[in-house]
Amino acid sequence: MKFLVLFTILALVFSATSATIQKQPQVGNAACDMCEYLVHTAEDLVFQNMSNTQVTRYLQTACKILPTKYAGLCEVMVEQYASQIIKKVLEFETPAVVCQQIQICGGQKEVEPIVKTPAVESVQNLGHHHHHHHFNPLKKFECKACDYAVKHIESHVMRGEAIHDIERAVDLECDRFDIHEAIHICKKVVHESINKIVEHLLKHESPERVCKEQVHMC
């Protein structure tokens, strides 16, 4: 899964830069990068409609694939901040902002800083530069919700159901999302674009293309 790839890359980068870092320590950078990777990973999991418990469990599993000296910091962060990270992801905060708010990457203090265990201190004495790309969480919500709605509409269309029956059925299926914003977007797609969606599905256009070119959510 994507989160495993991200953490593998993170581990490789830490390992590859450790020799240089020991000569010129940059306190806090590694912890900050670790935090932002955790938030990025949580975003991917949340947008797959996983529950808080599932997201936390996957983050814990992801920590275990890191080298021992980095796994300690990862596990501490997950234990102390998983619920806050998930909450802020649902509030559409970016990874940089989340990690500032939990006082790992600096910024205004909102909560107590991370506990200084030996595992934490050893990793916080490492650091490396990493370029982060802009992330629009609302756009990702829209795309996931649209894809879900259109694929379900498609399944009903293939069964030859009437449009008003499809609209009612998929509206109920939107309620399966755990995330309120995703439910709202899903229902909006269904009620505002059902006729257009069915029209283009009958032309054998893919759900991905319909969401991108007709609903403009991907």
TrEMBL record:
<dbReference type="InterPro" id="IPR051428">
    <property type="entry name" value="Sphingo_Act-Surfact_Prot"/>
</dbReference>
<feature type="signal peptide">
    <location>
        <begin position="1"/>
        <end position="19"/>
    </location>
</feature>
<dbReference type="GO" id="GO:0006665">
    <property type="term" value="P:sphingolipid metabolic process"/>
</dbReference>
<dbReference type="InterPro" id="IPR011001">
    <property type="entry name" value="Saposin-like"/>
</dbReference>
<keyword id="KW-1015">Disulfide bond</keyword>
<dbReference type="GO" id="GO:0016020">
    <property type="term" value="C:membrane"/>
</dbReference>
<dbReference type="Pfam" id="PF05184">
    <property type="entry name" value="SapB_1"/>
</dbReference>
<dbReference type="InterPro" id="IPR007856">
    <property type="entry name" value="SapB_1"/>
</dbReference>
<dbReference type="InterPro" id="IPR008139">
    <property type="entry name" value="SaposinB_dom"/>
</dbReference>
<dbReference type="InterPro" id="IPR008373">
    <property type="entry name" value="Saposin"/>
</dbReference>
<feature type="domain" description="Saposin B-type">
    <location>
        <begin position="28"/>
        <end position="109"/>
    </location>
</feature>
<keyword id="KW-0325">Glycoprotein</keyword>
<feature type="domain" description="Saposin B-type">
    <location>
        <begin position="139"/>
        <end position="218"/>
    </location>
</feature>
<protein>
    <submittedName>
        <fullName>Saposin A</fullName>
    </submittedName>
</protein>
<dbReference type="GO" id="GO:0005764">
    <property type="term" value="C:lysosome"/>
</dbReference>
<dbReference type="InterPro" id="IPR008138">
    <property type="entry name" value="SapB_2"/>
</dbReference>
<keyword id="KW-0732">Signal</keyword>
<dbReference type="Pfam" id="PF03489">
    <property type="entry name" value="SapB_2"/>
</dbReference>
